[in-house]
């Protein structure tokens, strides 16, 4: 059995058919299998006595010495919001307004103008990965204009286009959401894995797009077998699960993009719920940086968002989070639900993803109450954030969070 679940590059060197699949409604795969509509904590299926937490290798991650860039980053517990009602409406997004919001937010977060703020986080030799959320393409996915503003900041700071990667776990979702080479010339657009939608839906018996002749997923080579999150939970052994998850053992491997190539990460999630919790900064990486995740939903759903981020490959490389709240969603998440969206027209900035998620969690609870959605305020929906604070990964106590509206 493998002994160690970490080895980052830095340590080594120092509502379409597709949307239905993306949110877990496919009949073959069952609710909750595809991309994590959580069957326990996100929905209202809590049991009087939850089962004991499965064993994980979190202690291995915590044993690795931290670096000056480790979470919670340069500004622990600081969250900045920038709102502009002109940013987005039914006609689309105003890129110039979004660019101005980004500049204002970075200034409020760092106390520096954009050129100087770049130097606080990056050198010109870094390889920077921008983690987007393409689920619900065109409705509730990461807006291209927000990524445009980030790319412009990086390029103006002197980072070559070839040193920027826009990425997500699934390759086809990136194209669906508009992240293409035509939009971002010279910038890599990379998914950690492929998935055959037709095979997942049972509309094709041809598995050759995702299954090699050796019986192994063609995306296996994209994951680092030396860097993984281990959880003592068996995965389903059927083909539909393997199609989506690449592996079906007890290891969730990190993508080689993260372990071998990226030196810094910018996280750009969307402001949305998952049941009574949120699917924002920590979940965008907790479930987006590793494979073989559906097995984790019931016993470890929210804890994954803390424990995966504790590994050096994320903990030491994640330097900035920008939550896209231009069009937000208060119910029906993490998949798209048009009738539960609204134009919040706000961007949220933080180096500390746990402070950011706690702030946004409390905001979305208030929105759900305003919209007369039944709300369960049980602490279990935010306990993973307090867990992160106990691990020294971030600040979750609202009394310690410095939330400002720039």
Put the structure in a nutshell.
With 406 residues, this protein is of the alpha/beta class. It is built from 15 helices and 14 strands. The strands form 3 sheets. Strands 1, 4, 5, 6, 9, 10, 11, 12, 13 and 14 form a 10-stranded mixed β-sheet that branches. Strands 2-3 form a two-stranded antiparallel ribbon. It has a two-stranded antiparallel ribbon with strand order 7-8.
Structure description:
- The chain is an alpha/beta fold.
- It has one domain (9-405).
- It contains 15 helices and 14 strands.
- The strands form three sheets. Strands 1, 4, 5, 6, 9, 10, 11, 12, 13 and 14 form a ten-stranded mixed sheet that branches. A two-stranded antiparallel sheet has the order 2-3. A two-stranded antiparallel ribbon has the order 7-8.
- β4 (128-132), α6 (144-156) and β5 (164-170) form a beta-alpha-beta unit.
- α14 runs antiparallel to α15.
- It is globular and about 55 Å long.
